[in-house]
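Example record used in the benchmark description.
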Amino acid sequence: MSKHKYFVLDTNVLLHNADSLTSFADNTVVLPMTVIEELDKFKRHNDELGRNARHVIRQLDQLRALGTLKNGVALENGGSLKITVEKRDMPGALLDMSIADNRILAVANSLHEEGKEVIFVSKDINARLKADALGIAVMDFEKQKCNADELYTGWRQSSVPGDVIDKFYKEETLEAKGFNFYQNEFILLQDETNPKHSGLGRATSPDSLTHLDSKSESAWNISPRSKEQRMALELLLNPEISLVTIIGQAGTGKTLLALATGLECVIHKGSHERLLVSRPVIPMGKDIGYLPGTKDEKLTLWMQPIFDNLTYLMRHDRRSDDEKSVQQKVDQLIKNKQVELEALTYIRGRSIPRQFVVVDEAQNLTPHEVKTIISRAGENTKMVLTGDPQQIDNPYLDSSSNGLSYAVEKLKGHDIFGHITLSKSERSPLSAIAADFL
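Model output (structure tokens):
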């Protein structure tokens, strides 16, 4: 029988996941008083951190009705929760107790010195390092986390006899028993004896492949420059796939392809009423109210990468005979509400029907934020999440715990979901060497 454990939670764990209180089985969850004080500061924020803080506070208030939080109250999972007032000093003056993190660590240290099996849980690496230096076991909050090194790429390569590839070209479909493909996964079939003899298909079931759609070879006069970009276009232009995730480093074309497809679907095909583009405007989820100026002025600053891509795409709109300048065309799209740029702060609570939604830099979102955004999708809405899990600004997220990676791993295999990882920079030779060697 395993020894009863005491999990001391840092504030950032509760702000990251409001349901973390009940994530430690039948053990004891300990909240230092400093954590309660920090939650009180965050509860006024009008963002995800503020909402999580208020949710945790309401949970604690409901638990208070079951007994005294000082002595501990029972949780439904068989564990218990208690709030502890930390001592304002530590033996040997190990830590500066004027620092909030150190006061939280003092609680863990006191329990540790009492002989209890203590685990300090924090999203803050420095706090975990301090705890480890005190001899306290530490861990990151592991719930809603995946293995970034083994993240689903959306495609795989398979060696087969050459006659199998010939049959695939002839019949346009291929039954492949025992392969256990994921739905909408791409398979590159390669001849066992001649690697140049190959075929590319998309899985329509665990045991069958079909040819890529010839109508999905370009969008807004943008053609793919790699096999991965071709796969991305196949997913983006497929009306039966409602959610697409695209991962890639800078310059791989993930945002450009998403916007090109959005314009194609809104302007040329008319399958969607509007292209809605959003991105986290400030690391750590701060509201754009922290910046000076009107809402549109603030968005112009944070959406500049989107404007750059739209400007590039409008130069490639060969179907338009309009003599307006590129900038005038972009402004006209926004004025006509065919393209809308919106801060993620204002998407929560909305219902979004018949729109093509692109969320850029999605790696800076928590799993809960990604869930909230996807759940806004109304009838005939397509959502595209793009980002690079290796470039994260949020200090409490990493390549394994961010919402984009989590969505890829959890949703793979669903028939209305598709994913592709872009590996090669196509922006320019200079961009490519920077991505590869710097």
